[in-house]
Design a protein that fits this description.
Blueprint (H helix, E strand, L loop, with lengths): L2 E5 L2 E3 L5 E8 L6 E8 L6 E7 L5 E3 L7 E6 L4 E6 L8 E9 L12 E2 L3 E5 L2
Parallel strand pairs: 2-11
Antiparallel strand pairs: 1-3, 3-8, 4-5, 4-9, 5-6, 7-8, 9-10, 9-11
Protein backbone atom coordinates (compact mmCIF):
# COMPACT_ATOMS: atom_id res chain seq x y z
CA UNK A 1 0.00 0.00 0.00
CA UNK A 2 1.04 3.56 -0.59
CA UNK A 3 2.40 5.27 2.50
CA UNK A 4 3.97 8.65 3.14
CA UNK A 5 5.69 9.50 6.40
CA UNK A 6 6.80 13.01 7.31
CA UNK A 7 9.54 13.81 9.76
CA UNK A 8 11.79 16.68 10.75
CA UNK A 9 9.35 19.06 12.37
CA UNK A 10 10.00 20.75 15.65
CA UNK A 11 10.39 24.02 17.48
CA UNK A 12 12.63 26.65 15.98
CA UNK A 13 13.23 30.34 16.55
CA UNK A 14 12.32 32.92 13.93
CA UNK A 15 15.02 33.06 11.31
CA UNK A 16 15.96 29.46 11.92
CA UNK A 17 15.83 26.46 9.65
CA UNK A 18 14.27 23.03 9.50
CA UNK A 19 14.45 20.25 6.97
CA UNK A 20 11.36 18.13 6.52
CA UNK A 21 11.47 14.68 4.98
CA UNK A 22 8.75 12.73 3.23
CA UNK A 23 9.57 9.06 2.91
CA UNK A 24 7.47 7.12 0.44
CA UNK A 25 6.76 3.41 0.39
CA UNK A 26 4.54 1.24 -1.75
CA UNK A 27 5.42 3.22 -4.86
CA UNK A 28 8.35 4.96 -6.43
CA UNK A 29 8.58 8.67 -7.10
CA UNK A 30 8.60 8.23 -10.85
CA UNK A 31 5.55 9.81 -12.48
CA UNK A 32 4.29 11.25 -9.18
CA UNK A 33 4.08 14.75 -7.91
CA UNK A 34 4.94 15.14 -4.24
CA UNK A 35 3.49 18.21 -2.62
CA UNK A 36 3.86 19.85 0.74
CA UNK A 37 0.80 21.37 2.35
CA UNK A 38 0.34 23.05 5.69
CA UNK A 39 -2.53 23.84 7.98
CA UNK A 40 -2.52 26.18 10.93
CA UNK A 41 -5.28 26.27 13.55
CA UNK A 42 -8.29 28.13 12.24
CA UNK A 43 -6.94 28.28 8.71
CA UNK A 44 -7.56 26.22 5.63
CA UNK A 45 -5.00 23.84 4.27
CA UNK A 46 -2.73 25.52 1.76
CA UNK A 47 -0.26 24.28 -0.77
CA UNK A 48 3.35 25.15 0.01
CA UNK A 49 5.48 23.46 -2.60
CA UNK A 50 5.52 20.56 -5.02
CA UNK A 51 8.00 18.66 -7.11
CA UNK A 52 7.26 16.57 -10.15
CA UNK A 53 9.32 13.46 -9.74
CA UNK A 54 9.29 12.76 -13.46
CA UNK A 55 10.30 16.19 -14.75
CA UNK A 56 11.87 17.72 -11.66
CA UNK A 57 9.77 20.86 -12.00
CA UNK A 58 9.28 22.72 -8.74
CA UNK A 59 6.48 24.94 -7.56
CA UNK A 60 6.35 27.28 -4.56
CA UNK A 61 3.69 29.34 -2.93
CA UNK A 62 4.41 33.05 -3.00
CA UNK A 63 4.63 33.12 0.78
CA UNK A 64 7.60 30.74 0.85
CA UNK A 65 9.37 31.38 -2.43
CA UNK A 66 12.99 32.24 -1.80
CA UNK A 67 12.93 30.73 1.68
CA UNK A 68 11.91 27.11 1.10
CA UNK A 69 13.50 24.61 -1.25
CA UNK A 70 11.98 21.31 -2.30
CA UNK A 71 14.19 18.49 -3.49
CA UNK A 72 14.17 14.77 -4.04
CA UNK A 73 16.42 11.79 -3.57
CA UNK A 74 15.12 9.17 -5.94
CA UNK A 75 17.41 6.46 -4.59
CA UNK A 76 15.97 6.96 -1.12
CA UNK A 77 12.43 7.49 -2.42
CA UNK A 78 12.31 10.63 -0.33
CA UNK A 79 11.34 14.25 -0.88
CA UNK A 80 12.70 17.04 1.30
CA UNK A 81 11.56 20.51 2.16
CA UNK A 82 14.36 22.75 3.34
CA UNK A 83 12.87 25.67 5.23
CA UNK A 84 15.08 28.67 5.89
CA UNK A 85 14.38 32.10 7.35
CA UNK A 86 11.38 30.74 9.16
CA UNK A 87 8.70 33.09 10.38
CA UNK A 88 6.07 32.75 13.06
CA UNK A 89 3.43 32.58 10.35
CA UNK A 90 5.04 29.39 9.06
CA UNK A 91 3.79 27.61 12.17
CA UNK A 92 1.53 24.78 11.08
CA UNK A 93 1.21 21.06 10.65
CA UNK A 94 3.00 20.16 7.45
CA UNK A 95 1.81 17.30 5.29
CA UNK A 96 3.27 15.65 2.26
CA UNK A 97 0.98 14.19 -0.36
CA UNK A 98 1.24 12.38 -3.67
CA UNK A 99 -0.51 12.90 -6.98
CA UNK A 100 0.06 10.63 -9.92
CA UNK A 101 1.60 12.38 -12.91
CA UNK A 102 2.65 15.63 -11.46
CA UNK A 103 1.78 18.63 -9.37
CA UNK A 104 -0.97 20.46 -11.18
CA UNK A 105 -3.26 21.76 -10.09
CA UNK A 106 -1.77 22.38 -6.66
CA UNK A 107 -4.93 21.67 -4.75
CA UNK A 108 -5.34 19.12 -2.00
CA UNK A 109 -8.30 17.45 -3.70
CA UNK A 110 -6.01 16.15 -6.44
CA UNK A 111 -3.54 14.56 -4.04
CA UNK A 112 -4.81 11.14 -3.08
CA UNK A 113 -2.17 9.82 -0.67
CA UNK A 114 -1.29 11.71 2.49
CA UNK A 115 1.07 11.47 5.38
CA UNK A 116 0.06 12.08 8.96
CA UNK A 117 1.78 15.42 9.27
CA UNK A 118 4.61 16.89 11.27
CA UNK A 119 4.34 19.93 13.50
CA UNK A 120 6.46 22.98 12.79
CA UNK A 121 6.43 25.69 15.43
CA UNK A 122 8.30 28.94 14.93
CA UNK A 123 8.48 30.93 18.12
CA UNK A 124 10.93 32.87 20.22
Amino acid sequence: QVQLVESGGGLVQPGGSLRLSCAASGFTLDLYGIGWFRQAPGKEREGVSCISSSSGDRTYADSVRGRFTISRDTAKNTVYLQMDSLKAEDTAVYYCAAQVYGCYPMRDIYFTSWGQGTQVTVSS
